[in-house]
Amino acid sequence: MLAYHAHPMPPKDVRRSAFFARCANRGVERAGNSQSRRRPGANPESAGDLVIRLPPGNHPGGGIPVSRVLTGTRVVSSSMSASHRLSVSDHSRDSAGLRYVYPVLSRRAGGLSLGINLNPNNACNWRCIYCQVPDLRRGGAPAVDVVLLSRELEGLLADVLEGDFFERYGVPDDQRRIRDIAISGNGEPTGAAEFEQVIAAIEKVTERFGLPGRIGFVLITNGSGIERLPVQQGLRHWAALGGEVWFKLDSATEAGIRRINNVHLEPQTVRRRIAACAKLCPTWLQTCLFALDGAPSSAPEQEAYLAFLSGLVCDGIPVRGVLLYGLARPSLQPESSRLARLPAEALEAFGAAIRERGLAVRITP
Ligand code: SF4
Predict the structure, then answer these.
(1) Shortest-distance atom of ligand 1 to CA 3
(2) Domain count, the chain
(3) Given 17, 196, 211, 318, which residue has the most CB atoms within 10 angstroms?
(4) pLDDT at residue 57 above 80?
(5) Which of 2, 45, 121, 222 to mutate to test the pocket of ligand 1 (most atoms within 8 A of CB)?
(6) Torsion over CA of 256, 130, 189 and 244, rounded to 10 degrees?
């Protein structure tokens, strides 16, 4: 899901606690004061955004401690040489000093997103032709070390909220806030056998910092694991945490899904998964629009997509809306040279057609 790591709207009803008063300028966004800065559907790795890389601890040339030891908890530490502090264009998660957790700073959105990557093996059960995961291969997530993930998240949160993370990375004052935690990595997260435990771990760690209700929680998924009971149990917790799901839907025809996502999947199956997901957790659909071999998707393809959405609306399937994306960066798949961005007007026009079907739309050209 690297291609579309993105951010949710903040919870609206947020009261300021003593903790947040204390931390007002130390990394936690107080929801309600920044609606205009948060843009659901924004891709934080599009032009102008910073991907902060955390190289391995033994980085030559000396390092800057990224994480610290917390009382009673061994927190994984990492280090970073000054020359590797920030990278504007590097998408790689491979060199991260942390296995599962990575920070992304979005200039445009004005804050920090902490990503959770459950697929450090760059394996996904889909192969979307626009995917930006390097060396993507077919497969699933390896066993997740949930204890390590918890330690990484706790260490990074402590560093951001109580340490000098922002100073070290030279983050501008107006961006010194955590916007969200996003399960979004180099493959499909709902395939992880430990998905439910991962959600529980995120819940536990973020509660320790008083974050639920004050930052966003986003799961970015192709929906393939939604019907597994442990995933559904995890989604219930995710919803209770204030989380939402961004569910990939690039086409509503079998041929289109095969062409774009390289999976054999009937639209009815996708619809069933969307319905199951939306019942459990607030769900946005996430759609990438692009030209393939010089042409946008065909009129019948577009009509099928819009009819699919109309069907969801008519049947009361409570999706929140559609996040429409253009191609922010080049694909890292063999089809890359066949893909091109569509003009912003094309996305706007398609977005207007979706709105006519009764759904909200947010566009990131
Ligand atoms: S579903 Fe898998 S192949 Fe498609 S964009 Fe996400 S990570 Fe890449």
Answers:
(1) 5
(2) 1
(3) 211
(4) no
(5) 222
(6) -80
Residue where the block lists tokens 């999706």: 319
DSSP letter at 84 equals G
Q: What is the mean pLDDT of the chain?
A: 80
CA atoms 81, 86, 87, 93: torsion sign: positive
Cβ burial of 65 (10 Å; 0-12, 13-18, 19+) is: middle
Which pLDDT value is given to residue 170? 86
Are 220 and 183 in contact by the 8 Å Cβ rule? The answer is yes
Boundaries of domain holding 84? 2-364
- Range 158-186 average pLDDT: 92
Averaged pLDDT for residues 101-116: 84
State the distance from the centre of ligand 1 to the C-alpha of 163, rounded, in angstroms: 34
Closest protein CA for atom 6 of ligand 1: 1
CATH number, domain at 111?
A: 3.20.20.70
- Cα(192)–Cα(326) distance, rounded to whole angstroms? 28
The answer to whether the beta carbons of residues 75 and 143 sit under 8 Å apart is no
pLDDT tens column, 294-312: 999 999 999 999 999 999 9
User: How far is ligand 1, taken at its centre, from the CA of residue 248, in Å?
Assistant: 9
Cα 67 to averaged position of ligand 1 atoms, centre (Å): 30
Q: Which residues line ligand 1 (CB under 6 A)?
A: 1, 3, 124, 126-128, 131, 133, 136, 187-188, 222, 248
- Where residue 171 falls among pLDDT bands split at 50, 70, 90? confident
Ligand 1 pocket test, pick from 127, 257, 288, 327 with the greatest ligand atom count within 8 Å of Cβ, gives: 127
